[in-house]
């Protein structure tokens, strides 16, 4: 039988523990709700399983915000991201950026060809100056982490940068990028993409 | 004072699980476990069921879906051209079970809105909130002769056995044959779908049966979606005869002939007749459809029916939002509706979240085109922010569609 005293203790215990439990839901933040449509293409919590769509989990907010603004202004061409960047600006850029920034990042699920990875490693030295020795990026300079991104996405970006359809804001950096990418063939770009995709 | 047993107390307070030291119970005030029933395990319903559980695992969610497997309609046109297999488009519901969704592979036969319950066989399932995502039914009676011939005249507009049958009919047709496909009047499931299918059948015939041709009889005055892009694609296919404003009125399977509204008679060797559509019968019978008797009008923020309280409708059976009847939109509606249902069950204001649409159409064995729409909510209504089309067909867009499917199938079912 349950005494009134025991009932009181149980209620007290419930009140004490409930808030801890309630905070645990994966969608319990305004940023999570505002980011819900993104998972159609970018995977749950930004861990894209596809080869051509970037992983945005764990992305530095500084770079996330820059990317969204660049897509919205048409500086980065993408029929998919131009409308959705305006969606993000509409619902709240800061909250969406902060939501993805704290999501644990999983490495790309697509596998790279080991020979391409080896060739890419030999070509990758010049990328390290900006993107870091392991492609980890530099949030302070809004330099993206390219480590463990899907290879298809990295190759598409390299091609777009090489063809000058995507320019860098800093003129000197843009010149460096052009000089570096000019001698590289499509196969070289594929090898670089495979290498950085394979890094964890 | 009546004393309760410990079991009675725990049951009455809804706290049993929490007091045993496991997580998942969020509200002390809940007097009983809140129940949601979801009718239909397609893109909208499966997503809604999963996301309700993701948002609040204390809610009891039952999904009613007669089919044991989920078959993706997107990409099924590629099965007709022999580029994709139906097996690759077929998935099970185990992912939803892992989220704690109870799945009953049975059909809901009626909704009793007053008593807040759903009829399943001889049972009734009670709900606090109901999500209806039943998809579309065909209006066989709109085409003379179709109701009697509906087992042999294929629509292949719900991916499954008919998709395989239509692919076989195309394969076994003699070279020099005529394929006729008909496009229903708007509104129908997947606006660009018929034109993607036309492109892919034309590609197949051009590649495998070069003396054959495809006649497309469109009930609409022009190509309904991605108009400019499909017009450019159709120029690649000299075997494709596109005829707008040709609503099919009658089919004569003996004579292998269809008659259109202007009175034209067109002979065929293989027919693919996509009939006019409306919301599935259960939505019509539950009085969820509007004055048109075809589609369900909903609140643009919560997806609650404007006609019945505590019943939400998502997916292709809805109308009134400026969004297409696409898998991507159904997925978005499922998530947004899930958030609304969870908030409403807690007595909270539902969040205001607009949908989005990403829609790819393959046009041959390697290339695709796309349209993307983003939306906002203004004065409680969904309003388009922007629509963007790909500049033309490309291999890159086709690759993006494969990334999309890997992601969204997992979002719906994983």
Sequence-ordered SSE layout with sheet pairings:
The complex is a heterodimer of chains A (200) and B (414).
Chain A: H1 4-22, H2 30-34, H3 39-42, H4 61-72, H5 81-91, H6 93-101, H7 114-123, H8 128-131, H9 151-162, H10 171-181, H11 186-198
Chain B: H1 6-13, H2 16-19, E1 35-39, H3 43-55, E2 60-64, E3 70-71, H4 77-80, E4 90-91, H5 94-98, E5 102-104, E6 110-112, E7 117-120, E8 123-126, E9 129-132, E10 136-138, H6 146-149, H7 161-172, E11 178-183, H8 193-208, E12 213-218, H9 227-234, E13 240-243, E14 248-252, E15 257-260, E16 265-267, E17 270-273, E18 277-279, H10 281-285, E19 296-297, E20 311-313, E21 318-319, H11 327-345, E22 356-362, E23 368-378, E24 381-389, H12 395-413
Parallel strand pairs in B: 1-2, 1-9, 2-5, 9-20, 11-12, 11-17, 12-13, 19-21
Antiparallel strand pairs in B: 3-4, 6-7, 7-8, 10-18, 14-15, 15-16, 22-23, 23-24
Helix pairs in contact in B: 3-11
The major pleated sheet of chain B works out as: 5 strands, parallel
Biggest sheet layout of chain A: none
CATH class of one domain in chain B: Alpha Beta
**Cα-atom Rg of chain B, whole angstroms?**
23 Å
Describe the structure.
The complex is a heterodimer of chains A (200) and B (414). Helices cover 55% and strands 0% of the residues of chain A. Chain A is mainly alpha-helical. Chain A has two domains: 72 residues, Cytochrome c-like domain (Cytochrome Bc1 Complex, Chain D, domain 2); 85 residues, Cytochrome c-like domain (Cytochrome Bc1 Complex, Chain D, domain 2), CATH 1.10.760. In chain A, helix 4 crosses helix 6 and helix 7 packs across helix 11. Chain A is globular and about 45 Å long. About 8% of the residues of chain A have low confidence. Chain B is of the alpha/beta class. Among the domains of chain B are: 31 residues, no CATH class; 137 residues, FAD/NAD(P)-binding domain (3-Layer(bba) Sandwich), CATH 3.50.50.60. Chain B has twelve helices and 24 strands. In chain B, the strands form eight sheets. A five-stranded parallel β-sheet of chain B has the order 5-2-1-9-20, with helices on one face. In chain B, strands 13-12-11-17 form a four-stranded parallel β-sheet, with helices on one face. Chain B has a three-stranded antiparallel β-sheet with strand order 6-7-8. In chain B, a hairpin with a 2-residue loop joins strand 7 and strand 8. In chain B, helix 3 runs parallel beside helix 11. The longest helix of chain B has 19 residues. The N and C termini of chain B lie far apart (50 Å). In chain B, 51% of the residues are buried. Chains A and B meet through helix 1, helix 2, helix 3 and helix 5 of A and helix 1, helix 3, helix 11, strand 23 and strand 24 of B.
């Amino acid at each position: 039988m349950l005494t009134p005293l025991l009932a009181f203790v149980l209620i007290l215990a419930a009140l004490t523990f409930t808030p801890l439990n309630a905070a645990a839901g994966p969608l319990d933040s305004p940023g999570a709700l505002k980011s819900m449509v993104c998972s159609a293409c970018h995977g749950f919590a930004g861990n894209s399983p596809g080869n051509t769509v970037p992983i945005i989990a764990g992305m530095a907010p500084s770079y996330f915000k820059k990317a969204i603004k660049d897509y919205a202004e048409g500086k980065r061409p993408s029929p998919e991201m131009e409308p959705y960047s305006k969606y993000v600006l509409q619902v709240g850029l800061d909250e969406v950026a902060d939501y993805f920034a704290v999501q644990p990042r999983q490495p790309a699920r697509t596998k790279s060809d080991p020979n391409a990875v080896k060739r890419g490693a030999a070509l990758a030295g010049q990328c390290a100056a900006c993107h870091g020795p392991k492609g980890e990026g530099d949030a302070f300079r809004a330099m993206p982490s390219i480590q463990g991104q899907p290879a298809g996405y990295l190759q598409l970006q390299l091609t777009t940068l090489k063809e000058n359809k995507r320019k860098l804001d800093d003129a000197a950096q843009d010149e460096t990028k052009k000089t570096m990418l000019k001698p590289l063939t499509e196969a070289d770009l594929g090898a670089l993409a495979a290498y950085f995709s394979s890094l964890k | 004072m009546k004393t309760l047993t410990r079991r009675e107390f725990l049951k009455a307070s809804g706290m049993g699980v929490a007091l045993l030291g496991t997580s998942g119970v969020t509200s002390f005030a809940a007097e009983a476990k809140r129940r949601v029933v979801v009718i239909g395990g397609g893109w909208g319903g499966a997503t809604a069921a999963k996301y309700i559980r993701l948002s609040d695992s204390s809610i009891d969610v039952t999904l009613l879906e007669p089919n044991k497997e989920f078959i993706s309609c997107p990409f099924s046109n590629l099965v007709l051209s022999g580029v994709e297999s139906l097996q690759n488009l077929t998935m099970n519901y185990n992912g939803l079970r892992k989220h704690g969704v109870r799945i009953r592979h049975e059909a809901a036969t009626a909704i009793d809105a007053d008593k807040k319950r759903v009829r399943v066989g001889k049972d009734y399932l009670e709900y606090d909130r109901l999500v209806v995502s039943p998809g579309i039914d065909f209006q066989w009676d709109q085409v003379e002769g179709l109701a009697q011939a509906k087992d042999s005249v294929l629509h292949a507009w719900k991916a499954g056995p008919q998709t395989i049958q239509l692919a076989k009919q195309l394969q076994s047709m003699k070279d020099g044959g005529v394929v006729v496909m008909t496009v229903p009047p708007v509104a129908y499931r997947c606006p660009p779908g018929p034109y993607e299918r036309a492109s892919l059948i034309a590609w197949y015939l051009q590649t495998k049966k070069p003396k054959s041709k495809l006649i497309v009889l469109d009930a609409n005055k022009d190509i309904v979606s991605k108009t400019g892009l499909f017009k450019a694609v159709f120029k690649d296919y000299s075997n494709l005869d596109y005829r707008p404003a040709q609503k099919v009125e009658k089919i004569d399977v003996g004579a292998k002939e269809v008659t259109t509204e202007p009175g034209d008679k067109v002979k065929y060797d293989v027919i693919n007749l996509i009939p006019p559509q409306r919301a599935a019968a259960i939505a019509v019978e539950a009085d969820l459809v509007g004055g048109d008797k075809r589609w369900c009008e909903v609140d643009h923020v919560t997806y609650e029916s404007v006609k019945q309280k505590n019943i939400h409708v998502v997916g292709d059976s809805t109308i009134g939002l400026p969004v297409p009847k696409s898998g991507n939109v159904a997925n978005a509606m499922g998530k947004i509706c899930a958030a609304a249902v969870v908030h409403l069950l807690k007595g909270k204001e539902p969040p205001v979240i607009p949908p989005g649409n990403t829609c790819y159409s393959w046009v041959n064995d390697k290339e695709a085109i796309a349209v993307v729409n983003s939306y906002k909510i203004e004065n409680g209504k969904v309003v388009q922010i922007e629509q963007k089309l790909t500049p033309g067909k490309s291999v890159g867009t086709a690759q993006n569609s494969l990334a999309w499917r890997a992601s969204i199938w997992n979002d719906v079912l994983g």
